[in-house]
Amino acid sequence: PHADASVGNVTGSNSVNVFLGLGLPWTIASLYWWCRGDDPEWDLRYQFDSDLSFLGAPGKRSKAFVLKAESLSFNVIVFIACAACALFILAMRRRLFGGELGGPRIAKKVSAVAFTFLWLVYVVLSVMKIKGAL
Questions:
Q1: pLDDT (tens digit per residue) in 37-73
Q2: What would you report as the CA-atom Rg of the chain, rounded to the nearest whole angstrom?
Q3: Which of these, 21, 103, 106, 119, has the minimum number of CB atoms within 10 Å of its CB?
Q4: What does the DSSP assignment read for the chain?
Q5: Cα(100)–Cα(114) distance, integer angstroms
Q6: What is the dihedral of CA 123, 127, 128, 131, to 10 degrees?
Q7: CA–CA dist 59, 12 (Å, integer)
Q8: What is the rounded CA–CA span in Å between residue 85 and residue 79?
Q9: 120-130, pLDDT tens digit by residue?
């Protein structure tokens, strides 16, 4: 009668998507750059970048896959805030209606609108950060 299995399935599925969806391409890109010989474009972009001192001395750095975090910390903070709000909504639904899913029609619609709003907040804030509006 509860949706615990569904919520667990979604969480597990998303974890696999993130780990494979990010980890596998990053691993492939790392191997690609590690195996690749001299590359003037890489040298121009990263050889003297002060943020990459862990790759070695400027001018003598080994090729590596580089992905600068830039707005990552901001996105993580926004995600955590949105996730906390979502968990609060789910906890209140369980307390008020005895479960995360179902319940009165109005409550279902309000929850759906709230979750959609949280998603929009995350997307809009992330885009604004990337575009330099924040």
A1: 778 888 998 999 988 888 889 988 888 888 887 788 8
A2: 22
A3: 106
A4: --SHHHHHHHHHHHHHHHHHHHHHHHHHHHHHHHH----HHHHHHHTT-GGGGGG-STTSPPP------TTHHHHHHHHHHHHHHHHHHHHHHHHHHSSSS---HHHHHHHHHHHHHHHHHHHHHHHHHHHT--
A5: 14
A6: 180
A7: 43
A8: 10
A9: 999 999 999 98
Distance from the Cα of residue 25 to its chain's centroid: 15
Name the token pair of 38.
């001299």
Cβ neighbours for 130, distance < 8 A, ≥ 6 positions apart: 71
For residue 68, give every residue at least 6 positions away whose Cβ sits within 8 Å of its Cβ, in sequence order, or none.
51
Q: What six digits make up the tokens of 19?
A: 């780990």
Residues in the chain: 134
